[in-house]
Amino acid sequence: MPAPSTRRVVLSGIQPSGTLHLGNYFGALRQHVERSKHTTGDGNDAFFFVVNYHALTSLRDADALRRYTFDVALDYLALGFDPTHAALFVQSDVPAVTELAWIFNCLTPVARLEKGVAYKDKVQNGLVANAGLFTYPILQAADILIYGGDVPTVVPVGADQRQNLETARDVADWFNAAFPGPEGEPTFALPEAEILPDVAIVPGVDGRKMSKSYGNTIGLFDEGNVLKKRVAAIVTDSTPLEEPKDPDADNVFALIKLFATPEETAEIAAKYRAGGYGYGHAKGRLRELIDAHFAEARERRKELAERPDFVRDVLADGARKARRRADAVMDTVRRRTGLR
Ligand code: ADP
Ligand code: TRP
Fold first, then answer.
1. Is the backbone of residue 271 left (phi > 0), alpha (psi -120 to 50) or beta?
2. Domains in the chain with CATH codes
3. How far apart are CA 59 and CA 133, in angstroms?
4. Pocket test for ligand 1, best of 20, 24, 119 (most atoms within 8 A of CB)
5. pTM, whole model, 2 decimals?
6. With a 6 A CB cut-off, is 27 part of the ligand 1 pocket?
7. Which among 67, 123, 140, 269 has most CB atoms closer than 10 A?
8. Residue 257 annotated among the catalytic residues of the structure
């Protein structure tokens, strides 16, 4: 018997719908960059993409979409993404993904999409959801399955993506059941979410989940006065400086924990509990920690911004690798569905 294959595809996407923030970094980007560095191989088993079709569900500004798309690529490369081992590309450079999404739409019960969290939120808040937002999880399923095909896929994402990953698994099942191969073999292996539990939700300056839609973010590359103002804006309670404080109830401490070593985290927690340590002190330290953590990436980002052609070449190369994989999977899909 042949040894079972251990081949895995790793992939993930990120929306270019605004400037990336610390929540995006700890919930997604950091893992993507690490993965790109530790993926061995020639870049054909790891795919990271900027999902500009998805961003169109909320953005209607061509210049902004172009700029955010380029900036996300710049952010990845500045943080050390290794484009020789993993493909970095723009979603719309593989247009077949919308064809696959259409095929999946035809297999998906409307009632299932009505349970979508992002869609339900919009409707509950009295907003009119467009059909793109409604079928967003289906396009995401296509993103995942088109590069996976029958190879199992690992998808590093933030905890809020759990539901979309469930949908992608169900879509794979529905397709496999509706269109079995000649020997009954499945077209798609079931993808797995990889969620880092430690940093499941990064709080924003107002204590809610950090999100560009809440305007409560600290930008990944904020520096100087901008960074100072964002950190100053973090909401704390009114316990006086000299009194003991509960670190676990404080937003500043929640962010410090993400950057400080375990030893320093414990030290700062002890200072909170002892009293005489104010939120101003904690904010000063947080600012230093953020500043130091991204210092190198900030410099690299400035250098790369001077070389836009290099960034574009990386994206073009990534798109070529992605199309090669997508074409092979789509060939099977078209035959099995009768489109060809
Ligand atoms: P936003 O809420 O700002 O619009 P996105 O929905 O575009 O962010 O999220 C992009 C990625 O970053 C996703 O994988 C998501 O899980 C992760 N992410 C976003 N905000 C946070 C957060 N506050 N904590 C942890 N992960 C987050
Ligand atoms: N929905 C994801 C987010 O908001 C972005 C995304 C689109 C994605 N396609 C994907 C993530 C495929 C992982 C895999 O963060």
1. alpha
2. 8-201+308-337 (3.40.50.620), 222-293 (1.10.240.10)
3. 11
4. 24
5. 0.93
6. yes
7. 140
8. no
